Amino acid sequence: MKRFTLITATLAILLGLLLVPTTAQMQRRLHPQPGVVLGSNCPLEISPQLAAVPTASSLAIQDNSSSGDIVGVRQNTTERLVLDATGANYIGTSAGTTATLGSELLTNGTFDSDLTGWTISDTGAGWSYAAGTAEHGTGNVETLSQNISVTNGTTYQVEFDVSGRTAGTFTVSIGAVSLINSGSGTTFTSTSDRTLVASGTGSQALTITPTSDFDGAIDNVTVRAITATITPVLALTDSSNNAVVEVRGDTSLYNLGIGTYSLYSNTTGSSNAAIGSSSLRSNTTGGSNAAIGNSSLRSNTTGSYNAAIGSSSLYSNTTGGSNAAIGSSSLYSNTTGGSNAAIGNSSLYSNTTGDFNAALGNGSLYSNTTGGYNAAIGSGSLGSNTTGSSNAAIGSSSLRSNTTGSSNAAIGTNGGRYTNGGSNNETSSSSTYLGYDTRASASGNSNETVIGAGSRGNGSNTATIGTTDVTTHVYGLVVGDAGTSNHSLTVDDAYMSADAEVDGTLYADGHFLPPTVTFSTNMNTDVAGTESELVYCSTDSKVYVCTTTGAAGSAVWAALN
User: Fold this and answer.
1) pLDDT at 553
2) Is 204 strand, coil or helix?
3) What pLDDT digit, counting tens, does each position of 322-363 carry?
4) Does 504 lie in the same domain as 433?
5) I want to staple 319 with a disulfide (CB 3.0 to 4.6 A). Which of 7, 88, 180, 535 is the partner?
6) 468-498: per-residue pLDDT in tens?
7) What is the CATH number of the domain that holds 174?
8) Which residues contact 257 (CB under 8 A, 6 or more apart)?
9) Quick check: 174 and 198 in contact, CB under 8 A?
10) Closest CA to 385 of 421, 423, 416
């Protein structure tokens, strides 16, 4: 019996060994032979030595190899998912980190041994070779140039190094198009990389133009066309294979773009963040920008330090820097203007090149184009301003009609918006309107001050306090040495020059008593006086003002009450 049991166990072990498949058998079972499919056109491969994802529609899984795809999914020949042992993991096609630059268009941009290939204008002595650089000699404005072939509408990236500079600047251009440094400024002093769009096709000169005092050297000059945009590291598509989500980014430049076409063209710009379809779409070398919202900062190329939150905010900005826009279409038209702040739907909408403006409120500074140093708080405030500068408006529709007037201040709803006749106050300057619906006597006035709700101005170089309903003006309490009695002074329609000087007695309760004098019938012959001097006549209890300086008999006096 024991012998039979032992024989049976041995046979079972041998049978088990015969039934265990080899590795090759396992691969053949999991990976069908060519022409055999699991499902529709979808072979499956699990292999310890898979060199690459098969080119047909497939799913491939590899072991922990040191190179090659670990997991790969293809549709036809298009990669849809790749997890790679080298760390290049992506969903979609193989990813890139920056836009692709074409071949170098310049000859001898590194100045290895001389200035071969470059042309120096005029005397030809303004630039010289110096230790692998092109050095400018001070005292001249001779240019350094080289012809290159460009294509109209193509974006080109220009880079250069600057060393040894202590004074002066220079500009760089291709044909008639100047390279922008920041905002609308075209001058450079240090190592830079910027982009421009060529105007015209054919041979055009890359020209470096120095100021006479520029004392630096230039090296490593390159000009290359942007030939391809950035492939996203993640792309999710709809049923029609249209991209609905794209992610771009890299760790070396610290950029992140989430949204279709976001950060689409970036080359060397760093520390940018873009969320929303086409946000920062055209950015090439601009850095430290933040764009949140569909098409926010869409046209930005080299502008830096901008923040845009809201659909189409800072949409047209190209080289303007240090702008902040919060709200749909805020700073929409800005191109090169810098240091502007706009909060509210369509605030500073039309601004193109104006600098240092602040707008808070829906449509505030809406029409401003080139005006600068304006501040508007309140819906529609300074809404019609175009080129006026240094205006301040606080309150809904305050200074709303102003177009070209400058140095105005208005506080209160509709403050300074209209003239007394109800027309628009458009061109007044250096005027102040404090209070609801304060108005100028006419558009174009200067140095007009209007204070008090509903007050109406009285022309240039006038100050109006209150409306005709105001019966008493109190200018404060005057404190001085105590007198011997209480007196009050009432003055109607008194006009005094700015340097008028009044003598009299101050009492502890704040009342003022001018000097007293007794007039005879012919008062001009009785008292000498100085212009604007006030005296109190005890015989008729009236106050008189001297209108002309003179001795007794020649001074002229007029009663004030």
Assistant:
1) 78
2) strand
3) 999 999 999 999 999 999 999 999 999 999 999 999 999 999
4) no
5) 180
6) 888 776 654 433 333 344 334 444 444 444 4
7) 2.60.120.260
8) 246, 247, 248, 249, 263, 264, 266, 272, 273, 274, 275, 279, 280
9) yes
10) 416
Angle at 308 between CA 304 and CA 314, to 5 degrees: 80
pLDDT at 499: 47
Note the pLDDT tens digit of each residue in 134-145.
999 999 999 999
Same domain, 287 and 212: no
Among candidate residues 449, 414, 412, the one with its CA nearest the CA of residue 428: 449
The confidence score (pLDDT) of residue 23 equals 47
Q: What pLDDT sits at residue 240?
A: 81
Domain with 42 in it: 27-91
Of the candidates 127, 329, 298, the one whose C-alpha atom is nearest the C-alpha of residue 216 is 127
| Count of structural domains within the chain | 5
Residues 6+ positions from 427 with CB-CB distance below 8 Å: 402, 403, 404, 405, 443, 444
Please state the φ and ψ torsions of residue 15, each to the nearest 5 degrees.
-65, -40
Query: pLDDT tens across 434-454, in order?
Result: 999 999 999 999 999 999 999
Q: Which of 86-95, 214-223, 378-387 has the lowest mean pLDDT?
A: 86-95
Judge whether 469 and 454 are in contact, CB under 8 Å.
no
pLDDT at 183: 85
- Do 224 and 235 have their domain in common? no
Strands (E), 76-197: 78-84, 90-91, 100-101, 119-120, 127-130, 133-136, 144-150, 155-163, 170-174, 177-178, 192-197
Return d(Cα 263, Cα 26) in angstroms, integer.
47
What is the sign of the dihedral through the CA atoms of 100, 103, 105 and 107?
positive
- Does residue 11 fall inside a structural domain? no
Whole-model pTM: value is: 0.69
Is the domain of 67 the same as that of 133? no
528 located within any domain: yes
- Identify any residues that bridge with 248 across adjacent strands, giving them in sequence order: 257
Position 370, amino acid: T
Closest CA to 416 of 406, 425, 407, 427: 425
User: Taking Cα atoms as reference points, which of 380, 344, 343, 387 lies closest to residue 365?
Assistant: 380
Which pair of structure tokens corresponds to residue 446? Answer: 């200067």
* Beta-ladder partners of 375: 358, 392
CB atoms within 10 A of CB 501: 11
Residue 98 lies in a domain: no
190 with 168: CB under 8 angstroms? Answer: no
Q: Is the pLDDT of residue 388 over 50?
A: yes
